[in-house]
Design a protein that fits this description.
40% of the residues lie in helices and 20% in strands. By secondary structure, it is α+β, with helices and mostly antiparallel strands. The longest helix is centred in the C-terminal third of the chain and has 11 residues. It binds ribavirin triphosphate (RTP) and magnesium ion (MG).
Length: 139
């Protein structure tokens, strides 16, 4: 099934100039960019995007980090894009991420872990529309 997914290159990886290498990884694995922008998250945007994590012990630190500096937001599309991108990203904690995954290569810690990707069809549809309107998404 062709799916769309919302991907963020988080402030740590953007600041370290890993954007090009991360985009190349996605493109070389059959994914296509449908939308792309640079932005700084606000606490309000973070609360929408991370609604499922509000109240967890890591939430305040997560929002502090995600709002600290610019990040890259994109919509990727392709066959099984949601699972494919999460496999390319690797485990949340880079210490547990498999060799060759983006988090193994480019992440420092469970918090500063380089990338985000939607975890299902419902979250993908919800997250895409937090960051992009229809005029910014191309086929
Ligand atoms: P993501 O949403 O970023 O693609 O990653 P994920 O599904 O693998 O991780 P999730 O459980 O959704 O957590 C969202 C982000 O919160 C930070 N986090 N910190 N124990 C902790 O300190 C902790 N747990 C999660 C990470 O930045 C994670 O990507
Ligand atoms: Mg998640």
């Amino acid at each position: 099934m062709i799916e769309n997914t919302l991907v963020l290159i988080k402030p740590d990886a953007f600041d370290k100039k890993y954007t090009g290498r991360i985009l190349t990884c996605y493109e070389e694995n059959g994914l296509k960019i449908k939308a792309l922008k640079l932005l700084k998250m606000t606490p309000e945007l973070a609360a929408k995007h991370y609604a499922e994590h509000i109240g967890k012990d890591f939430y305040d630190e997560l929002v502090g980090f995600m709002t600290s500096a610019p990040l890259v937001a994109m919509v990727l599309t392709g066959e099984n894009a949601i699972a494919k991108v999460r496999a390319l990203n690797g485990a949340t904690n880079p210490e547990k991420a498999a060799a060759g995954t983006i988090r193994k290569e480019y992440a420092q810690s469970v918090q500063h872990n380089a990338v985000h990707a939607s975890d299902g069809l419902e979250s993908a549809a919800r997250e895409i529309h937090i960051f992009f309107n229809e005029t910014e998404i191309f086929d």
